[in-house]
Amino acid sequence: MLYLTDLIPGELENSEYKWLVSPRPHLGLLTRRRANTIVNRVRLLAFLFAVLTAAWSCVDLIVFPFDLWFNLALIRLVACTAFAGLLLYRPNGNLLDAYRAMALLFAIPTVFFVASYTLLGHHRLTGLSAAISVGYAFLPFVLLAGLSIFPLTMLETLFFAAPILFAQMIAGLMRWAGMDWPSFAGEFWLLVLISGVSTLAGMSQLGFMIGLVRQAVRDALTGALSRSGGEEVLELQCSIASRSGVKLSVAFVDLDHFKNINDQFGHEAGDTVLFNMAEIVFRNLRRGDMLIRWGGEEFLLVMPDTGLAHAEAALARLRKNGFGVTPGDTPVTASIGVAELVADHASDWKSLLEIADRRMYRAKQNGRDQVCSRDEEVATKQKLSPVPLAQTETSL
């Protein structure tokens, strides 16, 4: 990893350098943004290829025999139609769809290269025609250089470069008898070098994207997800929960009397309280839970695949560990409202958050330093009949 750290010094944290090699450890937010970027650049290249592929047919008409031009024009027409189809592709944040778009983008000119190379091999061209035909041999170089505009990992770049290198080998085998092998070997070695440069360029782009995404989605003070990053997390988790039918709980956490801390000890002391509180929560988060700084002293705790009963138990453990102490050595407490997507019949993440927010205010009205997981009218009805302890309002 030493070479990777020298590649993008200061941009990545030590744990993030492995993200340049494989997409497996990438966060969901990074994956979605990278997928959208890849598809948008695929569409840009598809537009350029469609225009240039059609325009170059005019050059072919001038320098090539009519029968050769006609066959090449048919191949170009098919390629332009395929490129135009890619322009209709719209990003949806799915990395597999982005891979599919890239595969189509590079498959079209690769097939065009092999087909045109075969056609040109059946004609003895001289002078200007021969010079123009040589230009077709440069298409693999253009394709491999084009990989450099995509934010790809090392494995991804090599995966897309391999078919192009293989196509070059196939084209060489087609001219086995009359092949100038020293020249072919030099061209192939140059293609390998371009692949290496494109790999480094793609990894460099990915490194900068990782740094930018981290800055955009992380709160600088606490290290929790920022509000903008949190909204993406909530939308994604609600979508997953709705499709799969699993539970999703969200806790709205508001520190009690935080304004008094700022007024009495200053904003710097208040920042220290927030930082310490986040550190404590991070140490006690369950695997898969996410902390979001919603604003000021307000935080959200997103708990995927968690029902109300389990959310209450997790929050009880969190409150037992405490949220730190004030500069005056008094315990920092919080009022917490929790809601669950299925049980509370929330239609989307916004309505789920509204329910949790309403219950957080009810926790404050009931004396602060407690968890509220039921609305008042529901709690009133439940008093009429016994219910299991895990389903009652938690007030610790």
UniProtKB/TrEMBL annotation:
Q: What is its EC number?
A: 2.7.7.65
Task: Determine if Heme is one of this entry's keywords.
Answer: no
Q: Which UniProt keywords apply?
A: Membrane, Nucleotidyltransferase, Transferase, Transmembrane, Transmembrane helix
Q: Which InterPro entries match?
A: Diguanylate_Cyclase (IPR050469), GGDEF_dom (IPR000160), Nucleotide_cyclase (IPR029787), Rev_trsase/Diguanyl_cyclase (IPR043128)
Extent of the signal sequence: none
Bilayer-spanning residue ranges = 42-63, 69-89, 101-120, 126-150, 157-176, 188-213
Could you tell me which residue ranges the GGDEF domain spans? 246-376
Please provide, alphabetically and separated by semicolons, the GO molecular function terms listed in this UniProt record: diguanylate cyclase activity
* Broadest EC class assigned to this enzyme: transferase
What Gene3D superfamilies has UniProt attached to this entry?
Answer: 3.30.70.270
Name of a matching Pfam family: GGDEF
Indicate yes or no for the key word Zinc-finger.
no
Reactions the enzyme catalyzes = 2 GTP = 3',3'-c-di-GMP + 2 diphosphate
**Composition bias, Basic and acidic residues:** 371-380
Q: Where is this region: Disordered?
A: 366-396
The identity of this protein, by name, is diguanylate cyclase
The organism named in the record is Paraburkholderia denitrificans
